[in-house]
Amino acid sequence: MNLSQRLQEFRDDRNLSPEDLAVLVGVKPINIIKWENGTSFPSISLANKLELMGFGKIELTETKQASTPRLTVAKNDHHQLRDGVREDIELNRERYEFDPMPYVVNGPENQLKFFETLYGLQEHNELPCSPELYSRRLSLVANVSDLCEKTAQFDLESPKRDAKHWNPNYGSHGWHRYIGRFPPQLVRALLNHFKARAGDVICDPFSGSGTTLVESRLLGMKAIGIEVCPLSALISRTKSGFPLSTTKLEELSAKVAQFYQRRWSDFVRERELAEISHEEILARSGNSIPAFTNYEKWMSKEALLGSSIIVELATTLDGYNRDFICCALSACMRSIGNLDVDVVRAEYSKKPRQNVAVLKLVQRKLKSMLGDINKMLRTHHDLMSEADDIKVVQNSLLEADIPDGSVDHIITSPPYGIESVSYIRTHLLSYRSLQPVLDYNPYTFDEKIIGSEYVKETNSTVPTWDAASYSPTFVKFFDQEMIDEKSKKFVHRRDMTVNFFDDMVKVAQRFQKWLRPNGRLAFVVGNKRLGEKIIPTDRIITEIFEFFGLRLDRSIEHKLKCNNSNSEVPWQDRIIQEEFVMLFTNTKK
Ligand SMILES: C[S@@+](CC[C@H](N)C(=O)[O-])C[C@H]1O[C@@H](n2cnc3c(N)ncnc32)[C@H](O)[C@@H]1O
């Protein structure tokens, strides 16, 4: 039995919750949860403490000490590679030696199996393009002997030789914080696994911040993203729709300072900002940010005035220029507003932020975004498709008009870790300040949003229980015990879970219709808990999808862990028990 299983058994035997054990060992409950799901290991001293409590022997290999070996990749120095790391890959029935990305070698041992799987997925007897070009597309690979000196991903991601973790923020991926984001390395491996060709149409109907769209663009495919939340749609568009030359964007960025400083001095004139009220800033001619609840608590005067000027500039622009400025401003919001950055739902911090320099923040952001575009253009020049090849539909996928059979492959992930409404609420200040552009009130979310525990709280919609007609596992899980009278909160959560599966029936029908025959689908989903029980989401999804002709080829169980962008979401670990990358084929004509 491995350490995770022994820990759970140890707790069960003594009737201890993770919180109880955490107190006894002197750590936070999240540490116990991480040890139990294998994403982290106790230090030697904590292992000793557990042993003293009667846990039994913990081997050195089960402690933190052993889980982060400090090996480095040296090109053509394969004897240094850790046992088990692959060094060759079969392409067109030929074996080629390659160097893995440094973090595959240096990273935590418990990631190795997943990396191995991703390498295997990218091997083919018949490649979708020349071996030379295909080798440039590979994910998690640094170089391939005889084929390419460096892969495009290696060039763009530029990992350090002693890197222990992959960087999910390469290129435009890191432009905006987004919870529940795909690791781009996974999407790239899936595009290769599906043998996507240049010009193929890839769809992500829950596009979120656009990871699938960016990877499709970088590898030369066409892509359609569908996203119901306006800010997420804007982020998707900006990250994936960048132009093939940055000249015009550089000119625009240079104008930002001029515009800003002129507007600022026209408004403040000889006065001090301290003498000006928040109300006066909102009444400024040119301002289009409307007054919103507690605005003076959310934003200092300089933050409000600065944002108001940037938004004014954005409203004079259109198309990509407008998106570019808005995305930059939104990405800076955590440094502009009085946001409590430790709380995922939007809450204002009790301590107002001082000396907020909006112009400086936005300028810095724009500069790094321009640098990223140039780097993407340089590293992917031989692969990349055009900006026009990427489309983002701002709507619910249940209402999107996608012609039957027009999609080659789908790579997507529904909201399963957090409720969809949280995607809106975590970006509350962006919605507030970009109201003139997004035209959306984050508190009037509607029925269109899938996967929320809040959406329907205010509405009277009851679940249809449609999923019961397609999934025996669904029926078994929501058995009598589940439907017997429980607390109001439990009944609400149960109904929302049932709603989610009812929606998955409609999703499966659409996916099957949109995909061409033999088109592939990657569906990433996690299993949450309902009360004491883990919801068998993967099995229910499989049964529903298979009913509609989407055949499950393979399900890869792996906790993606780094699917979040710039901050940790501690409770994400608690909520999601297991994560699955499920691979399907459309078997219908
Ligand atoms: C797990 S996130 C996707 C994250 C994405 N894979 C990425 O890398 O950024 C799920 C997304 O589905 C969106 N969503 C929820 N209901 C939707 C609907 N009815 N139609 C389209 N998108 C929806 C949410 O707003 C959220 O952005």
Query: Helical stretch count?
Result: 26
Small-molecule binders here are: S-adenosylmethionine
Q: What does the largest sheet look like? A: 7 strands, mixed
Report helical residue fraction: 40-55%
Strand line-up in the sheet with most strands: 6-5-4-7-8-12-11
How would you classify the helix and strand content by structural class? alpha/beta
Task: Say how many strands there are.
Answer: 12
Would you write up a description of this structure?
It contains 26 helices and 12 strands. By secondary structure, the chain is α/β, with parallel strands linked by helices. The strands form 3 sheets. It has a 7-stranded mixed beta sheet, with helices on both faces. A 3-stranded antiparallel beta sheet has the order 1-2-3. Strands 9-10 form a two-stranded antiparallel ribbon. The structure holds S-adenosylmethionine (SAM). S-adenosylmethionine binds next to strand 5 and helix 19.
Layout of strands and helices, then pairs:
Elements: H1 3-14, H2 18-25, H3 29-37, H4 44-52, H5 64-67, E1 88-91, E2 94-100, H6 102-106, H7 112-121, H8 131-137, E3 141-144, H9 152-157, H10 184-193, E4 201-204, H11 211-219, E5 222-227, H12 230-240, H13 247-268, H14 278-283, H15 295-298, H16 301-315, H17 319-336, H18 358-379, E6 390-394, E7 407-412, H19 420-425, H20 428-433, H21 435-438, H22 472-477, H23 480-483, H24 488-514, E8 515-527, E9 529-530, E10 533-534, H25 537-547, E11 550-557, H26 570-575, E12 578-586
Parallel strand pairs: 4-5, 4-7, 5-6, 7-8
Antiparallel strand pairs: 1-2, 2-3, 8-12, 9-10, 11-12
Helix pairs in contact: 1-3, 2-3, 10-11, 12-17, 13-16, 13-18, 16-17, 17-18, 24-25
The structure holds S-adenosylmethionine (SAM).
S-adenosylmethionine is lined by residues 178, 180-182, 206, 208-209, 211, 226-229, 232, 396-398, 413-415, 420, 423, 448-451.
